[in-house]
Structures are given as structure tokens and as C-alpha cells.
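FIELD: query
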Amino acid sequence: MSNEPFKAATAKVVITPPLGTLINGDFINHYACRVHDELYAKALVLCNGQQTLAIVVVDICAMQKDFIDEVKSLIGNQTGLPAENIMLSATHSHATGSVTSLLLGAADHAYRQKLPGLIARSVSLACQELRPARLAFGAVKAPEHLRCRRYHMEAGYEAFNPVTDQPERVKTNPFGGETAILEPVAPVDPELAYMVLQSTDGQWLGLLANYSLHYVGDWENGMLSADYFGCFAEEVQRLLAAGTGFNAIMSNGTSGDVNIWDFKDQGRYPTGTLQKSRLIGRELAERVVPSLNGLHWDTSPCLAAAFELVPVPRRETTPEAIERAKSILANASLESICEIDQENLRQIYARECLLLQEYQAVTSFPIQAFRIGQGMIGALGGEFFSETGLWLKSRSPFKRYFTITMANGYTGYVPPAQELALGGYETWLCRSSYLAAPSEALIRQRLHKLLQNL
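FIELD: result
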């Protein structure tokens, strides 16, 4: 056993791209033309003399596995940390620079070259600032800002599917169909969980939060913003009156079927640019900060990590679907798409169908688990529904557990099998939703086993 005291630190590095950089997260390209707030790579490093763990959260929409592997290699070269001890995830803000091609939103090559060094620097800086510390886990309930965005609709309402042209059983984000809504398909995860760090002399060092809210998205096209993730972090720092060595971090939980749009009460939020993000960030911070009183602090937490690549199959595409896609693209005008309607969606998803044919039949899916004292954190490389996170929480070996998604890779949406059968935007076959129906159950069971082994 090491006699070294437990140490921790956080650090952040500005990663805001230059104006003109491509922005993804929409069906089509956008270009950065103004900065609303700075974007960051934020690192949290824990060390007990036996193990060192790093958790890095980046203000970006998505990072694919090959990109993350490159970043982890760079971090390892600079700090000596093994890749399995580095948990690297995206917030999933849709108003950030692009390093991953999504639908017709392209990756920005120049930004992709620049970003790895900035992310690695955040970890190096945190390693240089390690100091004796203590940590605690906590959680509060915050259900009021969460809505399952997938709805059962009244008979006669036809939910359009651009991949099959067949009606679906559910509708994601039923804009214009509000009066036909029956009920949401599934429950949400109401918990805002967190891990907080203090130095042994009582200075705030960092807070890592986790909330299953997709993003807010009340920015204008071309605007760079960290969305509510950044608003929450700023407000926590203000409420704690914490010094410059403190960093609050909001990570994305199992939010693939959850957003903020309230179709039953559309007037409940302000409508100005980023006003809703600021409101939600403030209210979540105001819920967390008072709960920090009376926590159980751990001055010598055990640290452990486990990482596994799980082979999962992609969905098969029928010869008929491939021929249909070719027929659509033969008369397509992808370069002129600037608005999203049914015909344009058919063209976009026809392109996705053919691009998917270049993918391997089996994908290596990253799962990761950290044990930190009496708390645990899981990491999944895609967009998972609340059902997955609730299942993992209910079976965690410890009371304090949360799942960080968009971590260590990005395979897009991974719906539970019964949700895949219902249809909806998250299930449309494309490069951001392509795993076979059994994948979600396989992945969560393998992550559960990793957690048990720790």
C-alpha cells in the first residue's frame, strides 16, 4: 500500500475554434461566425499513489474512436497515463467545432488537427497541479427540465420515416403535431449526480456533474456556445465563490431520448438566445450547491479502472434498400440542400445507407468503468436512452453511480431493442444509428459486469 496522500486537481484549456470553422450536429453544415461563450476541454485528475485516473470532458458534439485514441496516446506520452485510465467524452453541445462527420455536417480537418494537443494539455496542466485532497459523491433530483422526446401519437397521425417511407409507431419531437400527442414513450432519469473535490485545507478544486439532458439548443446557427453545460459550470463557480483553481464540469448522461422541448407547455421557457440555457444552468447549479453541505468526505479513496472493447454487429441492409438508396441519389441534389423537408431527408439518408456499406460488419464498442472510493462511473461510446442509465443505476454495486455517454468513441444512438422496433428519428439507419437490435442489452450487461468486477 502506498503511503502517499490522495491528491486531485482540475484544469481547463480554451478550445474555441476560429471563425469559419465547420459546426456539425445538424442535418447540414454550419460555419462559426460569432462566439457567444468560450469552449473548453476540462480535465479532472485523481491520484492515490497506486493509481491515477483522468476524466476529460470536451465542449464538442461528438468524437469518434480513432480521434479519441489519438488523443489518449498523446496524453499518455505526456503524462504516462495508460489509455484505460483516461475517460474522454463530449458534452454533445451542437454549437461547437466539428471533428466528426455527421449526416451532411462535415468534419473540419484543420480543427481536427489542432484539437488533440489542446485536450492533452488540459490533462498535463491538471497533473502539474495535484494537491492533497478529499472527495465526495452526491445527487439531487431535477426532473422538471427533462422530457422524453419520443411520443405515442393519436390514431391517424403519420410519423414519417425517410429510410423506409413507412409510417412509424412513435414520433420524435412532434413539432406541428402537439395536439395529437398521447403520452411519452418512456420515463426519464431525474437525477443530477456529481462528484466534488476539495483540498484538505478546504479549497474547492472541482465538481463533475452528470445529467441526462441531451442539450438545450437555443443558440443561433453559426454561434459557438457550450450550451447549458457551460452555463451550469459558470453558475456553480459563482455560487461557490471558488478560486481560479476550481473547475465545474457537466457531463452528458443517458440522454438519447430526452430533451428540453415541452410540447404541452410551450410558453414555460424564455425564448431569447441562450436564455433558456442560462435559466436551466442556473437552476441546476442552485439545486447542487446547497446539497454540498453535509457530504461524507473520503480522504483516501481507492481508485480502479477497467476498459473493454465489445464486438457488436451493425444492422444489415437489404439489397432492396441499397437499390432504393441508389435510385434516390441518382436524382439527388445534396449540394443544394439548405432546408430540411421530407424529400431532402430521403436524399440525406439514402447517402447514409450507401456510406454504411463501407463499415465493418462488427464494431468494437468501448465501455469503461471507474471506481472512485464508494462511487462508480461508467462510460459508453454512444447516445443511450434513459432506460439504459436507470438499469445500470439500479444494479450498481454502490449507491453512487452515473454513466457518462459520448465517451471514448461515438457510434451514434444505441436504442433498446423495443425502442428500435417503434421507430423514430433516433432509429433511422445511418452512420449515427447503425448497431443491431441486441446491441444495447449486450453493452449494458458488459458494463454492469465491469462495474461488479471493480
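FIELD: remark
The CA atoms of residues 216 and 277 lie 6 Å apart.
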